[in-house]
Specification:
By secondary structure, the protein is mostly helical. It has a single domain, classed as Farnesyl Diphosphate Synthase (Orthogonal Bundle). Helix content is about 75%, strand content about 0%. It has 16 helices and 2 strands. The chain has a two-stranded antiparallel sheet. Strand 1 and strand 2 form a beta hairpin. The chain is globular and about 60 Å long. The protein starts with a helix and ends with a helix.
Length: about 325
């Protein structure tokens, strides 16, 4: 097996587990179909499975049988999709991975209830953990789940504020997005028998990568190719979402640029395409894309510095983990 194919093989096994074994493992029923079909629908979309794959690779750098924790890795993916299902309702998002969101395909009430079941099933998947480790894993999972909710609430709070600081925004995305990537790595290491210090280093590495990952998502929301991105490009601009890009633009815009930017923020009725084009042009004029890319790179660089201080047993999985992280930097969707 080549080094390049190792992560791909794990990803294939994970996907097979999620699509075929998971429904039986956690008892995804057939009735009522309105409860269970949305779960199967969301899990069947073209998800990247980054978080569970991180967990499997983190396990693999200490022990050579990462397939033994497919259930726990899948729990992270199920939880992640639960948050997406509910986030899409709150954001009124029409698309997820290029397809209709659950609340659009069914309705908001169905999406809420199906999401609730997904959370329950995530805990079912964690129960396959060795009994002496189970309390540690559950506490770690619960801490992270609470932080993700805190991040979402901060994000919603920002909608009501006229100004949000850069530090506040970074903390919000750390909670909402980054801690789950960090936890995925930390959990994989702990399940493989790594000590708390090494597992914490992986958590810190993953959290920095996660912040860079979300900043990249913010950047792609404005500048991505619609056909590659899978979500509505410009959605953050349309909703006046206080991303890093908007925060920096409000900080840097002066004179007519500031007037134009505030004009578009204040409009309640507007042509969506016109607004996206106008604000994107202001971002380009203010060099926001380059500033965002520099911020993204700073978090990835911090993460890799932490990564290099970690002690590993299996170099083959280290290579895969490093490559997967590098791919996040250069992704286009």
């Amino acid at each position: 097996m080549t080094e390049k194919s190792r992560a791909h093989a794990l990803l294939d096994k994970l996907e097979n587990y999620i699509q075929k074994d998971l429904p039986q493992t956690v008892g995804l029923g057939q009735s009522p179909k309105e409860l269970y079909e949305p779960i199967s629908y969301l899990l069947s979309l073209d998800g990247k499975r980054i978080r569970p794959l991180l967990s499997l690779l983190a396990y693999g750098i200490y022990k050579d049988d990462p397939e033994s924790i497919l259930s726990q890795a899948a729990a992270i993916e199920v939880f992640h999709n639960f948050t997406l299902m509910h986030d899409d309702i709150m954001d009124e998002a029409p698309l997820r991975r290029g397809k209709k969101t659950v609340h659009e395909k069914w309705n908001a009430n169905v999406a809420i209830l199906s999401g609730d079941v997904m959370l329950v099933k995530a805990y079912d998947l964690l129960l396959n953990t060795e009994p002496t480790l189970l309390p540690t894993i559950i506490r770690l999972f619960n801490k992270t789940a609470s932080e993700v909710c805190e991040g979402q609430q901060f994000d919603m709070n920002f909608e009501k504020l006229d100004q949000v600081s850069e530090d506040s925004y970074i903390n919000m995305i750390r909670l909402k997005t980054a801690v789950l990537l960090g936890m995925a790595l930390q959990m994989g290491a702990l399940l493989a028998g790594a000590n708390q210090k090494e597992a914490q280093k992986l958590y810190d590495f993953g959290t920095n990568v996660g912040i860079g990952f979300q900043l990249k998502d913010d950047l792609l929301d404005v500048f991505a190719d619609q056909h590659k991105f899978g979500k509505q490009v410009g959605g953050d601009i349309i909703s006046n979402k206080k991303t890093f890009l908007l925060i920096k633009a409000l900080e840097l815009a002066k004179g007519q640029d500031a007037e134009d930017l505030n004009y578009w923020i204040a409009q309640e009725k507007f042509d969506k395409e016109e607004k996206v084009t106008a604000v994107r042009q202001l971002y380009e004029k203010l060099n926001i894309k380059s500033l965002t890319e520099a911020k993204i790179n700073s978090f990835f660089e911090d993460g890799f510095r932490q990564f290099e201080s970690i002690h590993f047993n299996n170099e083959k999985y280290v290579i895969e983990l490093r490559q997967l992280t590098q791919d996040l930097i250069h992704r286009e969707k």
